[in-house]
Design the sequence.
């Protein structure tokens, strides 16, 4: 059917272009959960600016290890895409070889893990300090009010007059 409002083009042509636009629109990896493996290798290659074979090589070398689908196909997450871009940047702009990039990635992961552990320990320290403050306050509330603290830096002399014998 010819649609006169579309310059004589078929009406289905319009729908076809809409589908094409939706299908070719690049998903924004930042809008997808960081660890969700959702991108097939062809999409991951396009988003990272690398060839699909390069992604397979990086997987074999252990640089970027994507998740796997039930059928065994690679599925890349937004975090994987960012890591692929970083590998590309380090390789092309900084001149780092792949072994060096792998070491950098390992060290960055170690730093992230250690920072997480530091946060856990700081939370634990806060809890312990709070418990100690509560215990100290409870002890202070239990003090007798008729006792007066004495500053031990000063000597207290009590004078007793001599008694006649």
Sequence:
């Amino acid at each position: 059917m010819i649609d006169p409002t579309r310059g004589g083009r078929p009406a289905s042509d319009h729908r076809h272009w809409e589908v094409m636009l939706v299908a070719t629109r690049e998903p924004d990896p930042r809008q997808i959960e960081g660890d969700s493996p959702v991108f097939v290798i062809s999409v991951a290659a396009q988003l990272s600016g690398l060839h699909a074979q390069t992604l397979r090589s990086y997987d074999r070398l252990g640089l970027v290890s994507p998740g796997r689908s039930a059928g065994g196909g690679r599925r890349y997450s937004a975090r994987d895409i960012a890591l692929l871009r970083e590998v590309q940047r380090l390789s092309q702009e900084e001149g780092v070889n792949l072994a060096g990039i792998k070491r950098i990635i390992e060290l960055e992961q170690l730093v992230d893990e250690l920072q997480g552990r530091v946060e856990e320990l700081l939370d634990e320290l806060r809890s312990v300090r709070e418990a100690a403050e509560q215990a100290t306050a409870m002890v202070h509330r239990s003090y007798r009010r008729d006792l007066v603290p004495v500053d031990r830096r000063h000597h207290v002399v009590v004078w007793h007059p001599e008694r006649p014998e």
